[in-house]
From TrEMBL:
Designated gene of the protein: chrA
Record localization: Cell membrane
Protein name: Chromate efflux transporter
Chain ranges passing through the membrane: 6-32, 81-104, 110-132, 144-176, 196-215, 227-246, 281-314, 326-343, 373-391
Family: Belongs to the chromate ion transporter (CHR) (TC 2.A.51) family.
Top-level taxon of the source organism: Bacteria
Main subcellular localisation: membrane
Membrane topology according to the record: Multi-pass membrane protein
Originating organism: Pontibacillus yanchengensis
Length: 392
């Protein structure tokens, strides 16, 4: 019964986050921190930052992977599946409906979409304040964070982000390896390392075998699975990075027209949850609802294989003194990455007037000083933004 209640709790909380987590991957991490770390205490800040660092190294949607990892820590593999399902299904449903019933034009310019972009500024700023206090408490780590932000503002690529993390890890080893370092909470899992090894073997088997199958069997569903599994396996950085890869896979060969692709892109900006659910829209355009199911599962399956494979070895890696020292550098760099993202793309796409700044300040005040939950701040901000827009 207790395990069943745990599963229900994971599903309920992740579903609520899936309904309210607007603003893209960086904002998602902020929502997760507020809900899973600050409010529910499912793990501490150090372990949360370590999971972010791990997911930054893996291909796939980083924010979704963090949510899946937290679900696995809380409720095993089933908990991870439930955390993914709850967080993902609202945007899947919304984008399937966009594909079936709407053309997507004008949706991205609606007033309430602008309000949701503004609240993302407050949510990310709140996360930076909280994480910065704990993960950059001294001058060396503040310097790492600032340099990471500085570099990323000039070179906004997935390669630059991965390079920053690797360099920060090396700096951390050099600066902190001789210190007596806290380990943070262990990641407790209810499956064995053998399961992790099998999962990694399956990841490779699907990556190699699916293209061979697709080239020999004429089936739209196998073709869809091949396309989205490969993209989900190779994309680093998540979010917007996945869009050009998908465009190269589905537009030139005529599976989706450029016009429909761009309409789906606009719709994706208007819904909460992971941007990787753009696959749900494209799958619907290509093969209706069954196509959406195949494309969505194929897009996220590599993340499950990789996380199930890597997490059983994570505790051992974290207890190694050099690894822990490196993670101090990485965690500081994560704060810098968040800081850079707060400006671009979040601030640049959300703040266009004094009204936007005023609403963002009010949202931040509710989060930081009044300690209100993020989902409530989202609702209040939308109502306030629409009200101000009608008056001004």
């Amino acid at each position: 019964m207790n395990l069943f209640r745990t599963y229900i709790e994971i599903l309920f909380v992740s579903f609520r986050l899936g309904l309210t987590s607007f603003g893209g991957p960086v904002a998602h991490l902020a929502y997760f921190q507020d809900e899973y770390v600050n409010r529910r205490k499912w793990l501490d800040d150090k372990s949360y930052a370590d999971l972010i660092a791990l997911c930054q190294f893996l291909p796939g949607p980083a924010s979704s992977q963090v949510g899946i990892s937290i679900g696995m820590v809380r409720g095993g593999i089933i908990g991870g599946i439930l955390a993914w399902f709850g967080f993902t299904v609202p945007s899947v449903i919304a984008l399937v409906l966009f594909a079936l019933f709407l053309n997507g034009s004008g949706v991205q310019d609606a007033v309430w979409i602008s309000a949701l972009k503004v609240v993302a500024v407050a949510v990310v700023a709140h996360a930076i304040m909280n994480m910065g206090k704990k993960l950059t408490p001294d001058r060396p780590r503040i310097t790492i964070a600032v340099l990471a932000a500085f570099i990323l503002l000039f070179y906004q690529t997935a390669f630059a982000q991965i390079s920053i993390i690797l360099i920060a890890a090396m700096i951390g080893v050099y600066l902190f390896r001789k210190q007596d370092l806290p380990e943070g909470q262990d990641v407790e899992l209810n499956y064995k390392k053998k399961t992790g090894v099998v999962s990694l073997i399956l990841f490779i088997a699907f990556l190699i075998g699916t293209p061979i199958l697709a080239s020999n069997v004429s089936s739209v569903y196998i073709t869809l699975f091949d396309i989205f599994y490969r993209v989900g396996s190779i994309v680093f950085g998540g979010g917007h990075v996945v869009l050009p890869l998908l465009q190269a896979e589905v537009v030139p060969n005529g599976l989706v027209s450029k016009e429909l692709f761009l309409a789906g892109y606009g719709a994706t900006q208007a819904v909460p949850g992971p941007m990787f659910t753009f696959s749900s829209y494209l799958g619907t355009i290509i093969a209706s609802v069954p196509g959406a199911i195949v494309a969505t599962l194929a897009m996220f399956l590599p993340s499950f294989f990789l996380l199930v494979g890597v997490l059983p070895f994570w505790n051992q890696l974290r207890k190694n003194k050099n690894v822990r020292a490196g993670l101090l550098g990485v965690n500081a760099a994560v704060v810098g990455i968040l800081l850079a993202a707060l400006y671009d793309p979040i601030w640049t796409s959300a703040i266009h007037s004094n009204k936007d700044i005023a609403i963002a300040i009010g949202s931040f005040t509710l989060l930081y000083h009044w300690k209100k939950p993020a989902w409530l701040v989202v609702l209040v901000t939308v109502v306030a933004y629409i009200g101000v827009s009608l008056l001004v």
